[in-house]
Amino acid sequence: MDYKRAISVRHSCRSYLPDTIDSSIVKKLQASITDYNLLSGLNIQLILNNGDAFGNFSKSYGMFSGVNNYIAMIGRANGIHEKEKIGYYGEKLVLEATEYGLGTCWVAGTFDKTACSCILGPREEIYCVISIGYPAAKKSFKDKLINSVMHTKKKPVEDFFDTRGNVPDWFLEGIKAVQSAPSALNKQPVKFAYTDESSDALPSVRAWITSNSSGVEQIDLGIAKLHFELGASDVEWEWED
Ligand SMILES: Cc1cc2nc3c(=O)[nH]c(=O)nc-3n(C[C@H](O)[C@H](O)[C@H](O)COP(=O)(O)O)c2cc1C
């Protein structure tokens, strides 16, 4: 999987064609979902040919058109590091789908949670969904509008880290991949710091959120940590804020 290429071409897609997703792609996505659920303890579900969660205009504000499929990002209610894991594994699926030529969009607000046709286990909740499908060639007026409002200039690289002095190239490559990460309202409320305190230990990187008002910043953090890992190449994260 060429995740780096996917990072460079991905953008949020809010207008979809009605076509069903090719069964060979569905199989591969299902296999990844099974793996990620085992690794994370999440209960991610792929919902196909059912757009009810996006059919209610008052909940979706008419921002989306043609959504027939989505990935329901489900985890334990109040589970430790749950939101971070949702971001990390959900974005892995987003980048995989991008490589298959599909469009995606993370959606935490503008959908109807009560109309989601997924099955929740005891003490589980839907944190958000990811719409998925073949992108429409012609974007809806609202889709164009949202993209022009949200896609202001990228935050400069320096705004993403708090480290004085020189940082190694691999750290900067990680930060560059974070620059292209999706985030709620495109706020990118994340920062990274590099430390290389002693010569006999491996250098370490810390990541944290810079605000906590919308309740989904930890999801943004999980997404940003995955992008950092893919950009910097040889990184292993712990689940920690
Ligand atoms: C956790 C999360 C929640 C989001 N919720 C919504 C949403 O409710 N509605 C929407 O239209 N876009 C939503 N987005 C998409 C962002 O607006 C989009 O990622 C951001 O504007 C950057 O644009 P890009 O993804 O094209 O790079 C969400 C993104 C994330 C990461």
From TrEMBL:
Keyword terms: Flavoprotein, FMN, Oxidoreductase
Pfam family membership, one: TM1586_NiRdase
Domain Putative nitroreductase TM1586: 4-232
Cofactor: FMN
Keyword match DNA-binding: no
Top-level taxon in the UniProt lineage: Bacteria
Molecular function GO labels: oxidoreductase activity
Family: Belongs to the nitroreductase family.
Protein name per Swiss-Prot or TrEMBL: Nitroreductase
